[in-house]
């Protein structure tokens, strides 16, 4: 019997693309003042550079603009990006799904990777603490405990007072979200989003138990 449903955050409950867009708008506004450049043009350039490659976007932006910079100045921009309060919301199917799960008496949780300050800002923006009984940011445990490490699942099991075989985990990333099903009898579900991980390979070939295209489908199988 299922007693708890645990969710990943990025590209499961919220759009990582929307978060990135929000962060770039923040950085563009900041740099437009510092560099006396057009904010919209800076934002368009950041987006263009990211679409080419997500690596070292701020360095490449300043290189393209012919502006010299130090490592500390780049780190400052990265911190500004991670600490900004994002303009994001749940995917449209999330709130209706959570409402039904709550009505069924299920406990709800989140296990999310990512840098602590950025993840906490995302969680605040969507008021996640109003919906979920327990939330674990794996970075707060230590970088070595990011998924697919099982530690967060062990902790949330105890916090929610359930057994592993009474848990469902819903994620989107084949590289790390479903391997837990090989370690513990947790039923795993993949929500297929148009996100950045949709074409990734499964870690050691371990696949999800169910594949969904809309979280409303989840309410029919718990």
Q: Helix and strand layout, with pairings?
A:
Blueprint: E1 4-7, H1 16-35, H2 39-52, H3 57-65, H4 71-83, H5 94-103, E2 107-112, H6 116-125, E3 134-137, H7 151-160, E4 167-171, H8 180-183, E5 187-191, E6 210-212
Parallel strand pairs: 1-2, 1-4, 2-3, 4-5, 5-6
Number of helices: 8
Order of helices and strands: EHHHHHEHEHEHEE
Helix content: 40-55%
Strand coverage percent: 5-15%
Distance between the termini: 8 Å
For CATH, the homologous superfamily of the largest domain is named as HAD superfamily/HAD-like
Gross CATH architecture of the largest domain? 3-Layer(aba) Sandwich
Overall tally of domains: 2
Mean pLDDT: 96
- In spatial order, strands of the major sheet run 3-2-1-4-5-6
In CATH, the topology of the largest domain is named: Rossmann fold
What's the count of strands?
A: 6
In short:
This protein is an alpha/beta fold and 222 residues long.
Can you describe this structure?
The structure is a single chain. The protein is α/β, with parallel strands linked by helices. The protein has 2 domains: 4-14 and 88-220, HAD superfamily/HAD-like (Rossmann fold), CATH 3.40.50.1000; 17-83. Helix content is 41%, strand content 12%. It has a 6-stranded parallel β-sheet, sandwiched between helices. The chain is elongated, with a radius of gyration of 19 Å. The model has no long low-confidence stretch (mean pLDDT 96).
């Amino acid at each position: 019997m299922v007693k708890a449903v645990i969710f990943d955050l990025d590209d499961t409950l919220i759009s990582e693309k929307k978060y990135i867009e929000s962060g770039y708008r923040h950085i563009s506004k900041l740099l437009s003042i510092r560099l006396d450049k057009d904010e919209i043009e800076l934002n368009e350039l950041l987006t263009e550079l990211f679409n080419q490659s997500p690596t070292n976007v701020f360095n490449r932006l300043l290189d393209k603009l012919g502006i010299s910079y130090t490592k500390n100045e780049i780190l400052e921009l990265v911190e500004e990006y991670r600490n900004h309060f994002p303009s994001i919301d749940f995917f449209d199917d999330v709130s209706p799904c959570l409402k039904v799960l709550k009505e069924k008496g299920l406990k709800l949780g989140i296990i999310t990777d990512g840098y602590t300050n950025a993840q906490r800002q995302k969680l605040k923006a969507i008021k996640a603490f109003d919906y979920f009984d327990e939330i674990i940011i794996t970075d707060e445990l230590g970088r070595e405990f990011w998924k697919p490490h099982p530690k967060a699942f062990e902790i949330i099991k105890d916090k929610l007072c359930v057994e592993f075989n009474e848990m469902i985990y819903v994620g989107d990333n084949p590289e790390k979200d479903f391997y837990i099903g090989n370690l513990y009898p947790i039923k795993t579900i993949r929500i297929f989003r148009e996100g950045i991980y949709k074409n990734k390979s499964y870690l050691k070939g371990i696949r999800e138990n169910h594949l969904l295209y809309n979280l409303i489908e989840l309410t029919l199988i718990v």
